Amino acid sequence: MFSGGDAGAEAQPPSELPWLEKYRPIEVKDIVGNEETVARLGIIAQEGNMPNIILSGPPGTGKTTSVLCVSRQLLGAAWRDAVLELNASDDRGIDVVRNRIKGFAQKKVTLPPGRHKIVILDEADSMTTGAQQALRRTMEIHSGTTRFALACNISNKIIEPIQSRCAVLRYTKLSDEQVLKRLLTVLKLEATPYDDSGLDALIFTAEGDMRQALNNAQATAAGFGKITSENVMKVCDQPHPLLLKQLIDAALDGDFDGAHNVFAQLWDEGYAAIDVVGSLFRIAKYHECTEESKLELIREIGLCHMRVLEGLDSFLQMSALVALLCLPAAKRKRAAAAAAAAAQSRGK
Ligand SMILES: Nc1ncnc2c1ncn2[C@@H]1O[C@H](COP(=O)(O)OP(=O)(O)O)[C@@H](O)[C@H]1O
Ligand SMILES: [Mg+2]
């Protein structure tokens, strides 16, 4: 995984850069999705007086990118000297927080008028409570010269006193359309061949995470050349959605043998129970069927997911899931057949 710590990176030939970095938006306006949040950031970048901020939300939605864009826009040429970026791979114990930030806050840097130095703490929710307490004090002491931007997945993991000193900006998963749009832009610029099934597969496996989508796209392009669903699924090592769709179609038809054959094939290919259950859920959620059938499917998949997490992930347990998925349709079929037979005998 590549983190955003590229402030000091040497320039590389463009072709060797990971797409994540190569196509990381430079300006706030290039960030896709989360329109309200991004608009607020745009205003901060324009007006210049950046408050302390917390950016919270799922991975790969542009939190680190947003902070980098805002700080670059605020600080212009002074950016390199006036930003301190600490991410989870740096040591961020109490002493480091005190000393490095203190040293940075006291450093003299020529800034554009009315601007502040910026400390970026990426993945701040992985900092210990002790380090966060130290940070809170440091934030106060240096508030005249230095502003803080904390990115995290879950804002609850940031201690309350820090939360109350910050403006909280929330990010949500990107929509499939937003991921698609960005992917298309990148694929065109890279002149990578793709087909629609490949795009669908990238979006399916990314689940609203742009980092995932771009990484998988680059891995597929590097490994296979063309982006097709087959190739993407091989790279991502996930069960093929078409097979899972077949399984669900068979189940909705009450056809245990048909459904189980598909499952057995996936099992033979070496997929673990957790992969199959997770992917089945995502397929079932968007499957075209009656509301009632969908609820029945998801209920059983959810219960099976719990069992798998408890360690019951054998072939037999998964076969039982397939049986349970087939059961409602099989029952309905039998009831319909019985009703038809009854009607026929009444008619005689
Ligand atoms: N909203 C977005 N718009 C455009 N690209 C994005 C967006 N979110 C993520 N990316 C891409 O994914 C990469 C990782 O994004 P990042 O900002 O580090 O995510 P995180 O939210 O996990 O901090 C970026 O380099 C960028 O290429
Ligand atoms: Mg990040």
From TrEMBL:
One GO biological process term: DNA-templated DNA replication
Gene Ontology MF: a single term: DNA clamp loader activity
Location in the cell: Nucleus
Annotated signal peptide: none
Keywords: ATP-binding, DNA replication, Nucleotide-binding, Nucleus
GO cellular component: DNA replication factor C complex; nucleus
Domain AAA+ ATPase: start-end pairs: 49-184
Alphabetized CDD domains for the sequence: AAA, HLD_clamp_RFC
Primary subcellular site in the record, as a coarse category: nucleus
InterPro entries: AAA+_ATPase, ATPase_AAA_core, DNA_pol3_clamp-load_cplx_C, DNA_Rep/Repair_Clamp_Loader, P-loop_NTPase, Rep_factorC_C, RFC_lid
Family: Belongs to the activator 1 small subunits family.
PANTHER family: REPLICATION FACTOR C / DNA POLYMERASE III GAMMA-TAU SUBUNIT (PTHR11669), REPLICATION FACTOR C SUBUNIT 2 (PTHR11669:SF5)
UniProt protein name: AAA+ ATPase domain-containing protein
